[in-house]
Amino acid sequence: MKAIYKRELGAYFHSMIGSVCVAFMLAAVGLYFMVYNMFQGAPGFATALSSAIFLFIIVIPLLTMRSVAEDRKNKTDQLLLTAPVSVTSVVLGKFFAMVTVFAVPCVLYCFCPLIMKLASGSEGIVYFKSDYATILAFLLLGCLYISIGLLISALTESQIIAAVATAGVLVLLYLWDGILNFLPTAAGGNLIGMIIVVLLIALLLYSLTSSFVISGVVGAAGIVALVVCYIVNSELFASLLPNVLGAFSLTTVLTNFATDYIFDAGGLVLYLSLTFLMLFLTVQMIQRRRWN
Amino acid sequence: MIEIRNLVKRYGDHVAVDHLNLTIEEGKVYGFLGPNGAGKSTTMNIMTGYLSATEGDVIINGHSILEEPEEAKACIGYLPELPPLYTDMTVLEYLTFCAGLKRVPVQERSAQIQRVVQMTRLESVIGRLIANLSKGYRQRVGLAQAILGFPPIIILDEPTIGLDPKQIIEIRRLISNLAKEHTVILSSHILSEIQAVCDQIIIIHHGKLLANDTPDRLEEELGGSNTLHLTVKGEKKTVEKLLANEAGVTVEELEQEGAYTYATVRMGAEDVREHLFFACADQRTPILNLHLDETSLEQVFLRLTSDAVVAPPQKKRRGLLHRNSVQPEGTSIAVAPVHPEEPEKHEEVSD
User: Domain B226-292 has what CATH class?
Assistant: First the structure.
């Protein structure tokens, strides 16, 4: 893992991608920092940071697109997979290299609250706790998005497809809360929505396992359970879909930190567990390709 | 030692490897031979753990590649068909990375890299970016990577593909050197190469094992030809008469060019070469060239792998400087026939 980590990290800075990502993240957040905090005098660096989350949509695909797809295209995956290292450590090596690139600007962000303190003098108020907690949440959200990009990169040989698909998913996640507002609230509509969700999960299972039995059983059992619940107590279903999907609103967690000054530990757990899931799926996708 | 047990690999309906059983013993050089699409690369990819098998198992030095992949992979150095190079690294960086990947202890790394670089003659390009290297050097970097860590088994998938004759010779020498301490398995469809380097030949076709034997035994078992090529300094008539005196000989071709007579004859059960020699000597018509048209590996290969059973007999070129079956070490290029009257026109490669 260490060798792969070092190589990947070196590759990011050899090929400029790493430097470009770091520079872009610093410039974008720096701009917000300058306008919000330095000129308008807002006391929290968190405000600037949470305003700049659109930069994920640009930076993450750039960072993750080459991770697995390039290896597959250049056949260097043969080197990695025939070396005495496990697939898990290959994936982790790549993941941590990307996280390191991403962490560089995050570490530099840590200076911003200090700059504010210096600039505002002794009577100035700076919310250090909230600011640093937000930077942590920002970093963890970045890790999660990186793991999503890594998974998508493992699905294709083409870096372009990986980048576009990752950007698409990130746009969807960025607009997640807005989209949820348009979902139906009536019980009947939610039943249909939930059935669609179950079917999508079954489809995902099928594409991962290629087992018709497993995905069929999961899909059928889910639908039956939903219909039975609906018949027993249809009130449960009112606004169920927005509530269920709302739990996966990733940007809300960051907003909780930044604007509501809440240390959303549950949100961080969500970030970490989803990251873990994505990494697990990436390993599975690479393993599965060996079988086909 | 590698044991391939009942290996099957299916891609959908296509069976790439079909119930392959094979034991590879220590300390020999094995040649994997087969037409394109025979399953050579697939078998190698499964042996090295890059692909999984549909059925069966590969045991490498007691470790199953499916159950204990890391232990099994540690015994193998692999050069795939396309060298797996990171073109954004220099040769030294790349080899250092590979040494780390193969868990070469830190204190041994630089010494090992140095040794490997010497073996593959990469000294002059060690600091250059792999992206800027020629095909031959890239192949050698790939080879260096396979040797690194000095695993007991080294698997090379078409190691000389795309190289010029000089580089082929170098790589072949390297393989011979490696064979002293390692088991080497290499695949190729260049028969002369396999013949020159390998102790044992494995022929596969349609994913099935067709033969697993030494080159000599393969040639012997599958043919034993009895066609004789002859160049005699003398008149056609004299030669014809001489040949007619030999028991069981049928003349297939007889031709005179200048002072020389060329003949292709088929012998019966008896080997008449000795008798013929003295007969010609008595007539003062010296034999300038006499050789048996041995079944070449090529013929064995064609016979085994062609679905239409009969392979066309190899057309040998006549000539005084004709070299038959045993090729000089290292030359893969046929030496052009040279006519006695003509000035020499070798097409040999300067080494």
Answer: alpha beta
